Amino acid sequence: FIICFMACCGLCQYETNKLVRIQSVRLGSLKWSLNAVILLVICLMMLWNRKYQQFDLVVSSVTTKVKGVAQIQLPGEGQLVWDSVDYSGPAQKNSFFVMTNVIVTKGQTQGKCPEVPWNGRLCVSDKDCQKGASTPQSNGVQTGSCVKFDLLKKTCEVSAWCPVEATKAPPRPALLAAAENFTVLIKNNIRFPAFNFTRRNILPWMNDSYLKSCQRKTDSLCPIFRLGDIVREAGESFTEMAVEVTPPTKTCDERPSTNHG
What we know:
Layout: H1 2-11, H2 25-49, E1 59-67, E2 70-74, E3 78-82, H3 84-87, E4 109-114, E5 141-148, E6 154-162, E7 183-192, E8 197-200, H4 208-213, E9 224-226, H5 227-233, H6 238-241
Antiparallel strand pairs: 1-7, 2-3, 4-6, 5-6, 7-8, 7-9
């Protein structure tokens, strides 16, 4: 009982520091002088130096590398294996290129052949064709001759990769639908020169073993993204996007030229 009573008395006690007020002109003046100096220094830094407002433009660089292998059945060519050299084009600023669909024009060589009609522009005689003329939509340069395109139509002859690529609907589903499982490594480096501050999205502890096995879907720090996941996060369907095509790209050898999507 005595122990409990003493513990209760200890808990019910309240202590406060003792305050001593000294009447001294010298100590009072020293105190307020120090406060004034500190306040003055703070004001000078905020109004004149303004270190807290310094800024610097960021210097950054982004590089990408696409990886993946797919086997496709190319019309007229049979089964072919495509790797990053085949489906990935030259590096673009702030972007990367992946082929997803192919329209084949077999046996193309440089020569002269009838232009494919577009927008109803046909010819009747050589007078309708201007030698040396071309447009961004044409497949080549006109020779000045009006030749047969088929039994019913005549078009201006062009110097181009022949036979020219006829416009037609791309294959459905896309021939390179397997590109959905391709991956892209994105390296991002930023630097603020004025502050000597540098950051990378590939951290120092990320070795080759980690980068070969990690997936962004399960690891938020991984810099490797699956193309299908990127498209899905953008709210689109990879199956539908893969069918779309861009204007034809000509090659400098005698391989079948292709349209890329």
